[in-house]
């Protein structure tokens, strides 16, 4: 990965106080470790904190927050929308925050009972819609995702044309090398 900026460039923009986003940082570190150490990382879409708790209890190692699910059922207006960035822009970060609050509570209860057998803070992969506006909106959306505790964010191109993204809620993440190795084998005409 090549970055066209230096560490000094980032630190200059940070300000005088370093704010720590513990859930996002720890989730990103754990997700990176999983991606490097596991053949795949299964995840299901969660629309509520309780769903995420059940997923972690069942042994899933990551949680997916789908923009498609948020558009259809979990956005802040309570309305049903197509997956085209028509719902409020902060709906996905708000869902990430609610799910993390549920996981924090589950961890507190588990810890208070003297148990430490479950790693409640599964890394959360969130779907960010690029259709909300230009670079500033993408920056603000990414900032909100980090503040909410997302470990990983992917941006989808939601311009009004044929879709580039799939719309299924259960996904697996593979390390890039494995993706590149396997993509040539896939028969794209069947999809």
Structural write-up:
This protein is an alpha/beta fold. It has seven helices and five strands; from the N terminus they run ααβαβααβαββα. The protein has helices at residues 7-14, 22-37, 49-57, 67-74, 91-112, 135-148, 176-183, and strands spanning 41-45, 62-65, 124-129, 152-156, 171-173. A five-stranded mixed beta sheet has the order 4-3-2-1-5. Helix 3 (49-57) links the parallel strand 1 (41-45) and strand 2 (62-65). Helix 3 (49-57) crosses helix 5 (91-112). It is globular. 28% of the residues are buried. Residues 160-165, 167-171 and 179-191 have low confidence and may be disordered.
Give the topology, please.
Blueprint: H1 7-14, H2 22-37, E1 41-45, H3 49-57, E2 62-65, H4 67-74, H5 91-112, E3 124-129, H6 135-148, E4 152-156, E5 171-173, H7 176-183
Parallel strand pairs: 1-2, 2-3, 3-4
Antiparallel strand pairs: 1-5
Helix pairs in contact: 3-5, 5-6
Summarize the structure.
The chain is α/β, with parallel strands linked by helices. About 45% of the residues lie in helices and about 10% in strands.
Apparent shape: globular
Q: Count up the helices.
A: 7
- Compute the CA-based radius of gyration: 18 Å
- Specify the helix fraction band: 40-55%
First and last CA, distance: 30 Å
Compressed to H and E, one letter per element, the order equals HHEHEHHEHEEH
Features:
191 residues, alpha/beta, 5-stranded mixed beta sheet, 7 helices, 5 strands, 45% helix, disordered C terminus
């Amino acid at each position: 990965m090549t970055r066209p900026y230096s560490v000094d460039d980032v630190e200059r923009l940070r300000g005088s106080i370093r704010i720590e986003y513990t859930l996002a940082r720890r989730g990103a570190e754990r997700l990176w470790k999983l991606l490097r150490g596991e053949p795949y990382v299964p995840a299901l879409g969660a629309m509520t904190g309780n769903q995420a708790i059940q997923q972690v209890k069942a042994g899933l190692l990551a949680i997916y927050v789908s923009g498609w699910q948020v558009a259809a059922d979990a956005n802040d207006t309570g309305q049903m929308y197509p997956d085209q960035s028509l719902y409020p822009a902060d709906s996905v970060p708000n869902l990430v925050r609610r799910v993390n609050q549920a996981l924090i509570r589950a961890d507190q209860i588990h810890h208070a009972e003297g148990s430490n057998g479950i790693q409640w803070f599964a890394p959360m992969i969130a779907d960010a819609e690029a259709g909300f506006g230009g670079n500033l909106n993408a920056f603000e959306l990414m900032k909100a995702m980090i503040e909410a505790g997302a470990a990983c964010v992917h941006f989808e191109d939601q311009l009004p044309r044929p879709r580039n993204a799939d719309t299924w809620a259960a996904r697996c993440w593979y390390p890039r090398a494995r993706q590149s190795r396997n993509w040539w084998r896939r028969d794209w005409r069947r999809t």
